[in-house]
Specification:
Number of strands: 3
Mean pLDDT: 94
Shape: elongated
Low-confidence stretches: none
Radius of gyration: 25 Å
Protein name: MerR family transcriptional regulator
Structural class: mainly alpha
Pfam family, one: MerR_1
Largest sheet: 3 strands, antiparallel
Helix content: over 70%
CATH class of the largest domain: Mainly Alpha
InterPro entries: DNA-bd_dom_put_sf, MerR-type_HTH_dom, MerR_fam
Keywords: Coiled coil, DNA-binding
Length: 133
């Protein structure tokens, strides 16, 4: 199994070292192993876990909610259904937010198209006025 240093993990997961240390202090990342000189090292499993936490944060799940999920995870297989429901609820929320953003984007595009037409019309009128002088 591969292991990674802090600087390697920062490159792999796209988070800063301070963010990783914060996640560790908040118990969002399972106990990170340390070598004989006390430096952190990460496994492939840690990478997958960190990427999952990153996905939760990037979809605006609050730290406190992630902590609840982590507690469920630590309780083992008897919480699989609860974890599934937890992630399903968050997924539904994210899908709804994406749908709203797509609708808002379409509204913005319509307004932009309106202004583009108005701008072209204004340019034509200005050319006509210029040509008549």
């Amino acid at each position: 199994m591969a292991t990674y240093t802090m600087s390697e993990i920062v490159e792999i997961v796209g988070l800063t070292a301070s963010t990783l240390r914060y996640y560790e202090s908040e118990k969002l990342i399972p106990k990170v192993k340390r070598n004989s000189s006390g430096r952190r090292y990460y496994s492939d499993t840690d990478v997958q876990w960190i990427l999952f936490i990153k996905a939760l944060r990037n979809t605006e799940m609050p730290i406190e909610q992630i902590k609840k999920y982590v507690l469920l995870f630590k309780q083992g297989n008897e919480t699989i259904h609860e974890r599934k429901m937890f992630i399903e609820a968050h997924t539904n929320k994210v899908e709804k937010e994406i749908e709203e953003k797509v609708n808002n984007l379409e509204t913005l595009k319509k307004k932009l198209k309106y202004y583009e037409l108005m701008d072209k019309r204004k340019q034509r009128l200005n050319r006509r006025a210029f040509d008549q002088t």
